From TrEMBL:
GO terms for cellular component: endoplasmic reticulum membrane. It is found in: Endoplasmic reticulum membrane. This is Protein jagunal homolog 1. GO terms for biological process: endoplasmic reticulum organization; granulocyte colony-stimulating factor signaling pathway; vesicle-mediated transport. Belongs to the jagunal family. Signal peptide: none annotated. The chain crosses the membrane at residues 40-62, 99-118, 138-158. It is a multi-pass membrane protein. It comes from Chaetorhynchus papuensis. Keywords: Endoplasmic reticulum, Membrane, Transmembrane, Transmembrane helix. InterPro entries: Jagunal (IPR009787). The gene is Jagn1. The keyword Repressor does not apply. Pfam families: Jagunal.
Length: 183
């Protein structure tokens, strides 16, 4: 190699350093997974804000009851689902493994569990709607149970992918940590 402005070493054109310029795969994966998880967290925040808006409008009676129905019981514990997302975001700057693990555990408790409960809570109303065509709750003219099942399905996918990517990110961080310990 050459020193600054000095002669080059004999037999080199200066391009033999490029093999050392590659970023390790676990660092590349970490950046990619963080980006994907952030997108999922932002999607979750949008879902969460829609549920908060429905609750506020329903409880404060800002719109008639036939326009926006009162919230189902599962929606109240689901409000806590914002906490795992915040923990996930807090884990990113310094690759904090403990925050990411807490985020994954609390996602199961505060996000996935209320969604499962919500699917079970709304099932009898969904049966009644599709067997007899009767709906008693509405959200802007649509059956509330249909709208909320759509929300449950989308939210379950968001949280499922979030857990999957978080696990892969955790594995990537462990790989990085193990390589540092070997050196």
């Amino acid at each position: 190699m050459a020193s600054r402005g000095g002669p080059r070493a004999a037999g080199t054109d200066g391009s033999d350093f490029q093999h050392r310029e590659r970023v390790a795969t676990h660092y590349q994966m970490s950046v990619t997974l963080k980006s994907e998880i952030k997108k999922l967290i932002y999607t979750h925040v949008v879902i969460w804000l829609l549920l908060v808006a429905q609750m506020v409008v329903g409880h404060l009676k800002l719109l008639p009851h036939d326009q926006v129905a009162m919230p189902y019981q599962w929606e109240y514990p689901y409000l806590l689902s914002i906490l795992p997302s915040l923990l996930g975001l807090l884990s990113f700057p310094r690759n904090n493994i403990s925050y990411l693990v807490l985020s994954m555990i609390s996602t199961g408790l505060f996000s996935v569990a209320p969604l499962i409960y919500g699917a079970m809570e709304m099932f009898p109303m969904a049966q009644q709607l599709y067997r007899h065509g009767k709906a008693y709750r509405f959200i802007f003219g649509f059956s509330a149970v249909s709208v909320m099942y759509l929300v449950v399905v989308v939210a379950a996918q968001v949280h499922g992918w979030q857990l999957y990517y978080s696990k892969k990110l955790l594995d990537s961080w462990f790989t990085s940590t193990q390589e540092k310990k070997k050196k």
